[in-house]
Write a structure and sequence with these properties.
- The protein is α/β, with parallel strands linked by helices and 331 residues long.
- It contains 14 helices and ten strands.
- β5, α7 and β6 form a beta-alpha-beta unit.
- The two termini are 19 Å apart.
Length: 331
């Protein structure tokens, strides 16, 4: 995201910075712009009252702005990962941040409309900058794009990333179990950290003969091999807001199958929209997996090419240039 922002902007991580430091004039003098991410994690510390912590953090952010600092906020998710899907405090905090932020960065037109309708964001504050692909991040872009389709004795499906409830992997469990019981030849790999609430489902998935689960974070050095061995990426969530893993998959030429919600349509090339099935169809994922198993290598390669072209359009340096333009507005 920041790859093209230098030399005008120098990134300083604030991961271990206390909010109280933001209020100091010296902090503002050194850091003219503050970029907030993952707001649902910003105001939680074990043993502290969430409402009080946010009030304190807001006071420090207000002082940062009074000292001349500017605030840009990136919206990554619709619901709080840590709070669940219904939390009044999360919504209250977001409304406050919506008013406080100088610019609000969203990845899709869907997210733009949502921030206006749900939180009353002013359109003048919003900046639409798509989620970048990962070309050149885990390996040279030329290597990724020159790699041929993996040998296809069977079709290999992949889903990747932290296994939270919003990924709706129970839908994949049902589809994989039924297709396995019917004797279809395929394989599903599920790779990523499993949180406590997802451990039971992970064990059930791993118990299916055609499924393997790697219940841990995948090292960066192993990501190219993991993705290059697959043919299709599965994204069964009906509540996706922004999907970095979808952009990662398409960087390696994997077409996305998932529900036909706006977030998926706006994160995939038009030539692959026919791989998105009706979101409310309980058999949609099963039928699409069967279609992918029956798809010829020639058609799959056409989808693969569309994904590579989409990844090029969203090259990290190009997208970062758009962010640089937004940051330039603030200074």
């Amino acid at each position: 995201m920041y790859s093209a922002c230098g030399p005008e902007f120098n990134l300083t991580t604030s991961k271990n910075v206390e909010f109280s430091e933001f209020a100091h004039p010296d902090f503002q003098e050194e850091n003219r712009v503050l970029h907030l991410h993952w707001d649902d994690r910003l105001f939680r510390e074990s043993g502290e009252d969430d409402a009080l912590k946010f009030q304190q953090a807001r006071a420090h952010l207000d002082r940062f702005k009074q000292n001349g600092g500017r605030l840009i906020w990136t919206i990554h998710n619709q619901q709080a990962h840590s709070h669940g899907d219904a939390n009044d405090l999360f919504s209250e905090n977001r409304r406050a941040l919506t008013k406080m932020a100088d610019l609000i960065h969203v990845h899709t037109p869907h997210a733009w409309a949502y921030m206006i309708s749900e939180y009353g964001a002013e359109s003048e504050k919003l900046r639409l900058i798509p989620h970048p692909s990962y070309l050149g991040v885990y390996e040279d872009a030329e290597v990724s794009m020159a790699r041929p389709l993996a040998p296809r004795q069977i079709t290999r499906f992949l889903t990747f990333g932290a296994m939270r409830g919003n990924r709706e992997l129970d839908r994949l469990h049902l589809a994989a179990r039924k297709l396995t019981n019917r004797g279809h030849a395929f394989h599903v790999s599920i790779a990523g950290r499993v949180f406590r609430k997802g451990r039971r489902l992970a064990r059930r998935l791993d118990g299916i003969a055609n499924v393997s689960v790697i219940a841990d974070r995948i090292p960066d050095t192993e990501i190219p091999q993991l993705f290059s061995q697959a043919h299709v990426y599965v994204l069964p969530s009906t509540t996706t807001f922004t999907s970095g893993t979808a952009m990662l998959a398409q960087t390696f030429g994997l077409p996305i199958i998932g529900p036909d919600i706006e977030a998926h349509k706006q994160t995939t090339p038009e030539d692959c929209h026919d791989l998105l099935y009706p979101a409310q169809n309980p058999r949609g994922l099963i039928r699409m997996m069967m279609r992918m198993m029956e798809m010829s290598d020639a058609e799959l390669n056409e989808k693969r090419l569309a994904c590579f072209e989409f990844a090029v359009q969203r090259d990290p340096m190009r997208v970062s240039g758009l962010l640089k333009n937004a940051l330039s507005e603030l200074v």
